[in-house]
Design goal:
The complex is a heterodimer. By secondary structure, chain A is of the alpha/beta class. Chain A is built from 11 helices and 14 strands. Chain B has one domain. The chains are: A alpha/beta, B mainly alpha.
């Protein structure tokens, strides 16, 4: 269980003074939940990750992990947590086995226990035959797997992952997320992953959307997407002028809520009459019109546009 | 914590021996310095009270000191690399006491420096010096203290630096002058009065005495020498002080980071 109450975090920017990275954040993550915290770059995900992993301390607020206070009981919390960083915390001059050995020593694992767990974990991650290889020779995707195995060796109750697919190609990203899926089904642990890729959050049990240090929405991916209705229309126009014109027409004639970003329009609650109107009278003003199911990214745009108004 | 320290120290050694260029560089550099500077300054070297001592011989303790200095610097510079590559964060989130990071790094770097110094000590018979077993042991003690001081100091500086280029700048304007003004390159007695004072206040000068004196005096004589004992106390205070500061700094990171 991760419980965050009224968390505030500031950092000092030279000559500019204090900047708030997290503002009055409240969040509860139930045990054995796969929770993804998503939001654009600079939204505060990594700051929250840094606080949860014990690398930074909150300025205000309380955080409890499995009932333990993150400030006063940090050494106990560290034993409960496995951490996967944005850049793998691996020594590229050492072999996989040597990296795992150091991790085992730092976590006080007996050699036999380490050996048994490695034997188990290397099989399901497909790394069994690579123990003697230098980490520096591994591909990015493979290094991520090694990092994941390392983070799991001491059998943490909570797994923290900060943008773990960062820098991976689409295949590597899919493989890594498949492994996380497998992990959550086979082992009892709470997983908290951050990602700026909204599509990655769709796999989670629960998603939190963070923007400018504030938590805008929390819920299951489906619950969150349902806020936008079953379907929406996305219209791609050639330029901003056409987009503005269509936005005005849809709002004035059809009383619809439209979100415009550059030359793209997103419209909720479009009916057949509106579609007919668009296709018969304004076809020359857009290049593409698609009816699609809302995504978490749509929800993010929806919420953040509303906040601007 | 003990296993964590051993593990971290072992990592330093494995990394060192796995990087061939580091091994070659760390062995070749002091030998090149010693031979070239020793030969170049040899003809013009004259110092009061050092009649019959060639510059190559005079410079030898300074080269031993340089070996442990450079080893300390290049091993602790990896603190910055570790942080930039994310490796340090991985260690900081582990349930091991922060002291293990300092001790592991310092012990690993000290062992590397001492191994290089031992290699160079094989040339002692060719210099015509016969320090004896006791002298050699006292020399090793001096090297251990100097290595501890330089490594802990290097760690302390590296912990507060964000870039390796910044560390190199500090090395050029602070660490190398500490070595140059230790009496490694020229005797204190030859320096102008103001420089002599700076050299006397430099703790590294005292560490150098712990390396130079055992080459010429038996252990029993050293233990009765007030000059040696004074150098021993100052150098030990410097080394332990640097280590305590490094431990304090890292521990403070644990509390505030």
């Amino acid at each position: 269980m991760i419980s965050i109450k009224e968390l505030n975090y500031f950092y000092n920017v030279k000559k500019l003074g204090k900047r708030q990275a997290l503002a009055s954040l409240n969040l509860n993550i139930a045990p054995n939940t796969f929770f993804t915290l998503t939001g654009p770059n600079g939204s505060g995900k990594s700051t929250l990750f840094s606080i949860l992993s014990g690398l930074s301390q909150p300025n205000e607020g309380q955080i409890a992990i499995n009932g333990l206070d993150i400030v006063s009981q940090q050494s106990k919390i560290r034993r409960l947590m496995g951490v996967v960083f944005q850049n793998p915390a691996l020594d590229k001059h050492l072999t996989l086995a040597e990296n795992f050995q150091i991790h085992g020593d730092l976590y006080g694992m007996e050699p036999n226990l380490l050996k048994n767990r490695l034997a188990e974990d290397l099989v399901w991650t497909g790394l069994s035959d690579r123990l003697g290889e230098l980490v520096g020779t591994l591909s990015g995707g493979m290094a991520r797997r090694v990092e994941l195995v390392k983070a799991l060796l001491h059998r943490p109750k909570i797994l923290l992952m900060d943008e773990p697919t960062n820098g991976l190609d689409p295949g590597g990203r899919r493989d890594f997320l498949d492994m996380v899926d497998k992990l959550r089904h086979e082992r009892e642990m709470t997983i908290l992953m951050t990602s700026h890729i909204f599509a990655e959050a769709e796999r989670a049990d629960k998603v939190g959307i963070l923007h400018k240090g504030s938590l805008l929405a929390v819920g299951s991916p489906q619950e969150l997407k349902n806020r936008l209705g079953k379907e929406m229309v996305v219209i791609q126009t050639a330029d901003r002028q056409h987009a503005e014109f269509l936005k005005e027409q849809l709002a004035k004639n059809h009383h619809l809520k439209v979100w415009a970003r550059e030359g793209e329009l997103r419209v909720e609650g479009v009916d057949k009459n509106t579609l007919d109107d668009l296709l018969s009278h304004h076809r020359d003003r857009f290049n593409e019109l698609a009816i699609k199911r809302p995504t978490l990214e749509d929800l993010f745009i929806h919420i953040t546009q509303d906040r601007k108004v | 914590m003990f296993r964590g320290i051993i593990s971290m120290a072992k990592r330093e050694l494995v990394r060192f021996f796995r990087q061939g260029h580091r091994v070659v560089g760390s062995i070749a550099q002091p030998i090149i310095f010693w031979l070239f500077l020793g030969s170049g300054f040899g003809a013009s070297f004259q110092a009061p009270g050092l009649a019959g001592v060639t510059y190559t011989e005079y410079f030898f303790p300074g080269i031993l000191l340089m070996v442990v200095l450079f080893s300390g610097i290049f091993s602790t510079i990896t603190v910055i690399e570790d942080r930039n590559q994310g490796l340090l964060q991985g260690i900081l989130v582990a349930p091991v006491h922060r002291m293990a990071i300092v001790f592991g790094k310092v012990i690993g770097a000290m062992v590397i420096g001492l191994l290089q110094a031992f290699l160079l000590m094989l040339t002692i018979p060719f210099l015509g010096i016969e320090p004896g077993i006791g002298g050699v042991l006292m020399l090793v003690l001096g090297l251990v203290i100097a290595a501890l001081g330089f490594t802990a100091l290097g760690f302390l500086i590296a912990w507060n630096m964000e870039s390796t280029s910044g560390f190199h700048a500090i090395m050029s304007v602070f660490l190398l002058p500490l070595w140059m003004l230790s009496g490694a390159m020229f005797p204190m007695a030859q320096a102008p009065a103001w420089l002599e004072w700076i050299m006397f206040l430099n703790p590294v000068s005292h560490a150098l005495l712990l390396i130079r004196m055992p080459l010429y005096h038996p252990a029993s004589e050293l233990l009765g020498s007030s000059q040696y004992l004074q150098a021993f106390i100052v150098a030990l205070l410097w080394a332990v002080g640097c280590l305590l500061l490094a431990l304090y700094r890292v521990n403070r990171t644990q509390q505030s980071a």
